[in-house]
Design a protein that fits this description.
The complex is a heterodimer of chains A (297) and B (291). Chain A has 297 residues and is mainly alpha-helical. In chain A, 77% of the residues lie in helices and 0% in strands. With 291 residues, chain B is mainly alpha-helical. The chains are: A mainly alpha (297), B mainly alpha (291).
Chain lengths: 297, 291
Amino acid sequence: MSVREMQAALKEARSTARISVPRRQVEWSLITKQLVLLLAAFSVLFPAYFMVITPLKTQEAYSLSKLGFPTQIYLGNFETALRGGRFFLWFGNSIILSVGAVALSTFVAAMGAFATSRMNFRGRNLLLSLISSLMVIPPVVMLIPLFLFLTRIKMISTYPGAILVYAGLLAPFSVYLLNNFFRTIPHEIIESALMDGASPLDILFRIMLPLSAPALMTLITVNMLWVWNDLLIALVLLPEDSMRTLMVGITVFGSRYNADVPVSMAGMLMASVPIFLIYLLGQRYFIRGLVAGAIKG
Amino acid sequence: MLRTKPWTPYLYLAPVSLLMLFVFGYPLIAIFDFSMRRIRGASGPFIGLENYRQIFKDEVFQQAILHNAQLLLAVPILVLVGIVLAVLLYERAAGWRVYRTILFAPFIIAIPVIGIVFSNMLSLNGAVNELLRAVGLDFLALDWLGSAQMALWSVMAIIIWHEMGFGVVLFLARLLSLNEEIQEAARIDGAGWWQRLWYVTIPQLKDVTEFYAVVSIITMLAWVFPFVYVMTRGGPGNATQVMELYIFNFAFRNSLPGIASAVAVILFLITLALMIPLFQLRARTEMEGVE
């Protein structure tokens, strides 16, 4: 049997198999599946719906009905939220920290991963397994010595202090991911660059990194999200009000407006919209990166 | 492999190694030292295992460990929900791409946002209870986060809500990398949906399931701080106290870093013990087609 005949036979077998199932049974299973998925989607969308409609209501309208659609749209909550919380400052701090930490960790990790993936040296495998085991250790374990150390060298509530810590926490995952990706780059490309007289640094920055663009995008997305969403480290290492990140800011904001739910939700909505838009645009980078961290790739 | 001078690799590794020595190396040694001192300010006298004796006598710490253990009940739920939803998406149920986007979204949203939205929704006269009363389930309209009996279960449900999407995407990626012929063969042999799930799909997902279970166990023991901090601060009473919050409170609220370091050591040893199965599993879980 030729390949084509086999494919045809397989197709035939598949279609008869489908037809042989009674139609009503098929419909029922389709309905059940959709119901399960709808239920799961509902559980996700319900809080989102709440977060979107609540800020459009006045306190009074909210106290009458928590879930109903607002009878008339009220935008004053956003004004109150912007006056009550320093959202622009918080956004700014979060951007500085996540960009700084990701830039630093990507740079040093790329250099390290270049060595672990393309150079021979003693202790290479030991180093690689040590690095990937660090990924699992929760930051709370390291936080006390880090806090005391940064206090001693007067780097508490400073950008460089927090950036160093974040970059260090991101480094193991970054080395791991880049090491795996660098290994997939064909040796011939590097070989021919060497023939043209390229130095190792040229090879890293002119060949490896440009060829790793998709992996880099994934890495940057996931790491940015990690720093952006962190609460614990920012809470401990950046205690000054002017250094608050968005996460710390909205946590304080949420307890201050505990009694005024529409204003509180206006703040939450403003804090979430940017990330959510980025998610919708770059979904595959998020998914790929988070799965890649979990799986040898 | 590049032919380099013998010290070149170490030169390239130096910056990242220094950074990791600062963030991991030094602190992981220091916590052992701190945990055996009575620290006021930056350091203090050596007191042996006194801090450990203290925490194991402390009822609040016992509760914290118990609560972390109770949160482990979320692990089988996460595995089950993850597999079922991933299989439905894999079978290309109508609109599966949209469902995937929706189901993964909670994993992206910041935990403080999730915490604040849910604590408002779950208050006694909040949105959830309004919905329950509207459909006639008045008896279920409880004070979800405010009562000591319910609080930890509510926190657990919210953690599941947040973590669920990761499992779905992970299992889906694994399913997409599998050989479809086996599923097809089972279908042709007349195996029903449940039979295929039980006898074909679940065995095929064994490695990734074990891996996800271990990751979730570590999450439940050592990555739940933001949920608890934002929603309950460990309360009411100590009903949602967990190890991480205990460390945070003792180190940065009560200024007793020695006691907190002893708990950090315990947490470190627990993750260390869980790391061994994790890496054996990761080595076995090879896959492609992550999309």
